[in-house]
Amino acid sequence: MLHKLANFDPNYQETFGGDDVKGLELYTNSNVRVGRVDDVLVDDEGKFRYLVISTMYDSTSKNILLPIGLSQIDYNQKRVYVDGLSQEQVERLPEYRDDIVVDYEYEEGVRQGYRQFTEGVNYNRNTYSYQQEPNLYDLSVRENQTFKLYEERLIANKNRIKAGEVTVSKHIETELATVTVPLEKERVVIERVNTSTSEAILDTNEVQFQEGEIARIEVYEETPEIRKQAYVREEVRIKKIVEQETLETQETIRREELDIDTQGNLNISDKNINATDPKN
Predict the structure, then answer these.
(1) Are the beta carbons of 236 and 168 closer than 8 angstroms?
(2) Could you please report the per-residue DSSP string of 156-205?
């Protein structure tokens, strides 16, 4: 069963590195423009089998199927080359439309229009496979083989890992502190004064002797009052900053280069094609 390219792989342009075979102009190897590619039909494995070509001859147009093995896709020049496609050949080919079911009978009509030197060869529809006609369906049979050259590149990524940890805590230290407090203490001083005889003689009638006469003097003293008070001695602020550095490293990478060995006097053109042609 065959499928349109976009139906089989909606992201086919990414598959082919951004290139799109649809819309490429179709030229013969003698640089005669004969049409353009409208679509691609692929099999169940995604291999290219037919290019849907919109041909133009003498102001007339006709959509036909071109077996992929007869084409040379050049994404660099945005062209598809075909090794001859005459107007008579186009007229003999069955017309392709979107509503046509591409079954074995239809494909046989297409193949008959392109077969050469196959007189007397009979194909069994029950056992037929595209590998039986590599000149029609196998890209590797023609000159447009795809040869991939690989190279290695260094990819730099960053991983965030834990390099360490800083723990800040506090503990209590004790010390013996000394404070000096001046204290005042009152004391009573009793002085006895001896008087002279003349001064000591009093009139007995004038003196009144009393028992129990008391003199009171209050005595005060200061006592120390010691207490502790907490206050902020200093503040410790903790934060982290991000520092950037550039690390340059070297690694040996590999790259494949193309070696071309020719024999005889050949004219070879080496074209730099960015995209890879679809493999059969």
Answers:
(1) yes
(2) -----------------------------B--------PPPHHHH---TT
Mean pLDDT score, 158-169: 87
Contact 53, 38 (CB under 8 A): yes
Q: Are 110 and 67 in contact (CB under 8 A)?
A: yes
In whole angstroms, give the CA distance from residue 60 to residue 43: 30
d(CA 24, CA 218): 125
* Longest alpha-carbon distance in the chain: 185
Q: Where are the beta strands (DSSP E) in 76-121?
A: 79-82
| Of the candidate ranges 6-20, 60-74, 175-189, 202-216, the one whose mean pLDDT is the lowest | 202-216
CATH superfamily of 3-141: Photosynthetic Reaction Center, subunit H, domain 2 (3.90.50.10)
pTM of the predicted protein model: 0.50
Which 3 state secondary structure label does DSSP give 115? Answer: coil
- At 241 the three-state DSSP class reads coil
Q: pLDDT band for position 255 (50/70/90)?
A: confident
Task: List the domain boundaries for the chain.
Answer: 3-141
